[in-house]
Amino acid sequence: MGKYSLAALKPELVANYRDKRLNSLGRRGELISPNTVRLELALLGHFFTVSIQEWGLGLTYNPVQNIRKPSPGEGRSRRLSNDEEKRLFAVLRQHNNPMLAWIARIALETSIRSQVDVKRRLVRLTDTKNNEARLVPLTRISHRG
Q1: What confidence tens digit (pLDDT) does each residue in 40-84 have?
Q2: For residue 145, how many other CB atoms are within 10 A of its CB?
Q3: Ramachandran sector of residue 103 (left: φ over 0; alpha: ψ -120 to 50; beta: rest)
Q4: Nearest-10 crossing angle of helices 99-110, 82-93
Q5: How many contiguous H segments (helices) and E segments (strands) does the chain have?
Q6: Residue 50 and residue 60: Cα distance in Å, rounded?
Q7: pLDDT-based confidence at 104, cuts 50/70/90?
Q8: pTM for the complete prediction?
């Protein structure tokens, strides 16, 4: 897409880019993940939004806005290696807030840290009594003070 001017980028070109990326191979020879393409499109869309709203480049619309985006997929389940955990807590213990390492330890031990979507205010629970994953909404109540 680098050969086109910003004004020449139309939704059809962005959709073609999406489709080519979804069928292309990454550095390790595997297909590019739909989530990677979704994030690339989000970055491109944000670039157009800033160009229009803040930079006044004279563009009339965002060509990324109305094309279908790949789904984000299920995500990954990953734990820190022992070495990663040791390095993390060595840094956290040096922080001026003594509670930070304690909070990180709880998050690490509960394995729920990667399943919290702060923006959408949801927690995804995968290991439930009835073996069915569910989303739990978070309240907007502030627990400060």
Answers
A1: 999 999 999 999 999 988 888 999 999 999 987 766 667 788 999
A2: 3
A3: alpha
A4: 160
A5: 4, 3
A6: 12
A7: confident
A8: 0.53
